[in-house]
Amino acid sequence: MARSPRTSVWLAGEEKTKAPKRKAAEPGGEGTLDRDRIVATTVRMLDAEGLAKFSMRRLAAELGVTAMSVYWYVDNKDDLLELALDRAAGDMRVPDPGDEGADWREQVRELATEYRAMLIAHPWVARLVGQYLNVGPNSMAFADAALRVERNIGIAKDGANAVLGVIFQFVYGFATVEALSKERYQESGVTEDEYLKHVRETVADRPEFTELYKEAAEMMEARSAESVAAMRERDFAFALDMMIAGIEAMRDR
After folding, report:
1. Are 175 and 116 in contact (CB under 8 A)?
2. Looking at residue 72, what DSSP letter applies?
3. Cα dihedral 178→90→238→217 (10° resolution)
């Protein structure tokens, strides 16, 4: 018999998303164990170590309890990761779509900037957003605000979904590459500017590379005075402005 497909912890009933507090009974267990503490600790561990190293056993050790104690509050790891995903989404501020004096362009920029900041602060989120429905209260509040801003733009209904798609898929890709790059710098034990300087020097020592890929080499040289952070911010702002201009042109057409 085929198993029913998993939907979401948020659609499984109130008992799934709320649980009573219990005193940590295990020796070494500190304070009251509850779902908020479990989810907050999960987010902190994922931020520090990533998905690959995370396990329910390691979480329990961090909380100072047995693994079975955690299962009083979450049925399984999937449910816990989905709860953590929505907790991370709570970092994002949302513009007020009901503000009649607001410029939709600035609201789109705010949505994109908040989404990018969240993905950078929590690199593991990029791996999870396609695995879960993301219908927790924080995720839905952000999505609802985005849809209302989109409505204020005045795009025809048949193109409305594409507006959000082009913005958030760009931000997702940009921020994911940014986060992975930062991980590479950290693993190398150098700053991002030191890493880029090393790459430039290595390329300069390989004339066959600069000859084969002249355009890339010239662009790298032209931007040699900029820090990685400055280049990244300028590229993000320019690309976002270009997409907003495209949305406006499509709307007017």
Report:
1. yes
2. T
3. 0
**Residue-by-residue pLDDT tens, the chain, 253 positions:** 556 678 899 998 765 566 555 544 454 445 579 999 999 999 999 999 999 999 999 999 999 999 999 999 999 999 999 999 999 999 999 998 888 889 999 999 999 999 999 999 999 999 999 899 999 999 999 999 999 998 888 887 777 778 888 999 999 999 999 999 988 888 889 999 999 888 888 888 888 888 888 888 888 888 888 899 999 999 999 999 999 999 999 888 8
Looking at the structure, tell me whether residues 85 and 108 fall in a common domain: no
Chain-centre distance for alpha carbon 51: 13
Residues in the chain: 253
- Report the CATH number that the domain containing residue 53 is assigned in CATH: 1.10.10.60
Only one residue has tokens 């050790």, namely 61
- Residue whose token pair is 């979401």: 8
Cβ proximity of 115 and 175 under 8 Å: yes
Indicate the helix (H) or strand (E) that contains 226: none
CATH code, 113: 1.10.357.10
Of the candidates 116, 109, 92, which has an alpha carbon nearest to the alpha carbon of residue 171? 116
Cβ-based neighbours of 111, under 8 Å, separated by 6 or more:
94, 95, 142, 145, 146, 149, 167
Co-location of 75 and 172 in the same domain: no
Total domains present in the chain:
2
